[in-house]
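Side project, low priority. Logging it here so it doesn't get lost.
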Amino acid sequence: MPKLKAPTQRRMLRAAVSRTARISPSFVTLTVQGPDLADFTPMGFDQGIRLFFRRDGQQELAMPTASHNGWLAQYLVMRPTARPWVRNYTVRAFRPDECELDIEFALHGDAGPASAFASRARAGDPVGLFAEGVGYLPTPTAQSQLLVADESAVPALLAILEQAPGDLVADAYLEVPAGEDIRAVTAPAGVTLHWLPRDDHSAIPGRLTLETVTSSWKLPPGQRIYCWVAGESSLATGLRRYLVKGHGVTKTDVSFLGYWKHGKSSP
């Protein structure tokens, strides 16, 4: 199981979409706002949240109330007609003075409820948030890092780079659906960016990155390295296996997070 640093306190928070911004053909940012966000404690880097939003036809957003992991039991006993959608996302940015939080979505049409919600969201749409933990936990003695993401984890990787110390040395691989999704990135001078546009609608996300890293990336000789990899499950587990078995990287120096699994939808 991936190691996560959990928040010390949290509760269910309500907010509403205040604006949206299309970043590229495959990415959109939703800004949510509300007085409840005054109680949100940011942890930085790739901090995750549970995002609750209405299903089609629902007039109200029904929410669990537990301030601990008991929320899931509450959620599962809700009437199916009242139960909202819930998905995991990364905090892209948080502005406490404005009680505003940005969430960036990778769009893939209306095939998934979150993508459909993000592409159609309008100001005033209600959402719920529940803080989760941080998976980016660099080994303090690591001299360099390998950071890898498919499009589902690109927002998390960009947040990591924007908050990284100025002396970070890393190779960052970012897979996106198309060349038009490549963007300017704020990152320390020691970070080498590798954008990997698929430009192939039939290709499975994550495979291009796994093939590229395993065929072209070289472990820096004599260095201890920390690796963070997130996205499709096969990318995360496959790269971890390659690093540990192929290069002798210590398991505790690899944070691998399977955000989703190809061919399997969440309930």
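Brief comment: The longest strand covers residues 13-24.
Revisit when time allows.
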